[in-house]
């Protein structure tokens, strides 16, 4: 841990709960100035309060901004607010995402498909676009973007066409943006996370549908494994980049046949 405050600025989307909240709090404790972004302002404020006040100036180092990343105007306001408050951006964590109910592709409502595309893909694109503009123009220029992918970017779960498709697309966004960012000192990478213990994965401990049609419980890992891996990526100098990183519960059915 750096454990000293500094002037680097981070923006985390979907920071009101789960992985987003945990990583935003870890950045704050690591000395970053952090914008917690998400749809629900009370949840963002609670996440900031739960981080404590490690440097005695929480109001100067953390900011909650309500924003729907699928809304272009809201993303514009988010980045305007960030720039007015902190003046620059050193790290963007594109974390906001939604799951859709397990549904066979031929029965999938169009609204569920559109919701997944809007939040899981359109949102990271909009935030990446704004981050590039800011990182190119600021002095010193450059910065880092980390996209929250998924194990589903490599191996789908049954009945997960919207989520899996958008997470595959995130890998394309990561690689294409990493290529474009080279000339401007912008490093772009992706973290693929498998089965971290949160409220959203409690059903996995009880038993979830497998590719062979069986229902079996799956191993989960603690959130500290995710935040420590994320911080290792975030702290790298811009001359180095982790293009893709997978952190997963050791016992989950992913490698080989499970």
Q: What does this 3D model show about the protein?
A:
The chain has 258 residues and is α/β, with parallel strands linked by helices. It has one domain (9-248): Rossmann fold (3-Layer(aba) Sandwich), CATH 3.40.50.720. The chain is 41% helix and 17% strand. It is built from eight helices and nine strands. The strands form two sheets. The chain has a seven-stranded parallel sheet, sandwiched between helices. The longest helix has 28 residues, at 110-137. It is globular and about 55 Å long. The mean pLDDT is 93.
Describe the structure concisely for a colleague.
With 258 residues, the protein is an alpha/beta fold. The chain is 41% helix and 17% strand.
């Amino acid at each position: 841990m750096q454990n000293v405050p500094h002037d680097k600025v981070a923006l985390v989307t979907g920071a009101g709960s789960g992985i987003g909240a945990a990583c935003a709090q870890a950045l704050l404790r690591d000395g970053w100035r952090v914008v917690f972004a998400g749809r629900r302002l009370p949840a963002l404020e609670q996440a900031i309060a739960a981080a404590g006040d490690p440097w005695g100036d929480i109001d100067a180092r953390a900011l909650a901004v309500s924003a729907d990343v699928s809304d272009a105007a809201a993303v514009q306001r988010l980045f305007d607010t960030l720039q007015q408050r902190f003046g620059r951006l050193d790290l963007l964590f594109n974390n906001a995402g939604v799951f859709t109910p397990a549904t066979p592709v031929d029965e999938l409502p169009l609204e569920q498909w559109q919701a997944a595309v809007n939040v899981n893909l359109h949102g990271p694109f909009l935030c990446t676009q704004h981050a590039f503009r800011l990182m190119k123009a600021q002095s010193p220029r450059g910065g880092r973007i980390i996209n929250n992918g998924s194990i589903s970017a490599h191996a789908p779960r049954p009945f997960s066409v919207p989520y899996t498709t958008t997470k595959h697309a995130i890998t394309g966004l990561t690689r294409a943006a990493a290529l474009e960012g080279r000339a401007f000192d912008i490093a772009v990478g992706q973290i693929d996370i498998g089965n971290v213990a949160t409220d959203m994965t409690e059903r996995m401990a009880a038993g979830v549908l497998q590719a062979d049609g069986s229902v079996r419980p799956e191993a989960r890992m603690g959130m500290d494994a995710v935040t420590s891996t994320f911080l290792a990526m975030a702290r790298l100098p811009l001359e180095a980049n982790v293009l893709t990183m997978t952190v997963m519960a050791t016992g989950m059915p992913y490698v080989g046949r499970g």
